[in-house]
Please model this.
Amino acid sequence: MGIDLGSAALVAPLVERAPTITTLCSHSSLQIFHGARTEGFRSLGVCTGAPPRFYDAFPLGRPDQFLSVPTIPEIRSHTDELNRATALLVPHGSFVEYLGADAFQKLPVPVFGNRAVIGWEADREKERVWLESAGVRMPERYASASEVDGPVIVKYYGAKGGKGFFLAKNRKALEGFKPTGPHVIQEYVLGTRYYVHFFYSPISDRGYRVGRGSLELLGMDRRDEANIDEHYKLGAQEQLLNAGIRPTFVVTGNVPVVLRESLLPQVFDVGARIVERSIELFGGMVGPFCVEGIMTEDLVFKVFEISTRIVAGTNLFVSGSSYSDLVRPDLSMGRRIALEVKEARAAGRLREVVS
Ligand code: ATP
Model:
């Protein structure tokens, strides 16, 4: 048997009655609700105010019921209602962001996956310790501007979408740079970005074995990032700045990508290392996660960030991707979550995937 994440008391109601797959009405909720419906679960959407109208346009992605709260943090006073509905919360980026990582971790409602991972992802320092000790290649980090020996990206903590990130071609270009808050100076990696959508199942005994379970690759995307992605049209950053435009990396959309097949072993190795180390550090990451990295011209994949839950880039693949089609037809990440819950419940192993 594997590692129990959730207590018997927390999980017991979901053993007696089928869970209601629950998430915040945003981000990747359509495919989460669609996946729940496909696997025969009821679903519940948490929203503020009236249920969002856009669900009317997507009947297969509409939750069966809504819970309206005045503000997202006020979910904390509705936990009895959620538990009465046997809610199983599925974290996504907006859900964790709007509620706060700390509050999310403390909610007395069952959560899909290991809620301990939220604390490791929310803290950039802890995330770096995790990835580096797993042997994952990351961009260099410079303790001060005087150490810089190439192009750098200056990142502010909690920048959200890379707002205010500063790029410098070299040490000279960094002279006179006045940081406006806590930040890190990181090697600017030249290459091509890939956002790799993995799913780790601790209960599967098929496929690419990692730990006691298996690692699946379900898709890959690249983010469209305004206004930096268009910046080549205007020329170099100086020209952007001269035009009074601060480059940002605010995500506006996603495009599907595939990796050269010969590079798949490398990204699987990165995914496996991240999972194996997570098992040692905090009992393991369960379910969806995204490895965000840059493939250099030397074909080295340098990871600048991981997201330890479903990412919005998976919205591209509601009916499958070039990768998930080779795992199972019509497999979205949302459906994969529901499937994991269904299989864990049938095998009496819910505590390994719910915390
Ligand atoms: P979010 O939380 O929205 O994912 P963030 O504020 O955590 O963003 P990152 O994800 O670290 O910021 O970076 C945002 C973008 O900046 C990346 O998607 C990528 O385009 C670019 N970027 C980040 N780190 C590097 C790097 N070391 N070299 C080159 N580009 C980078």
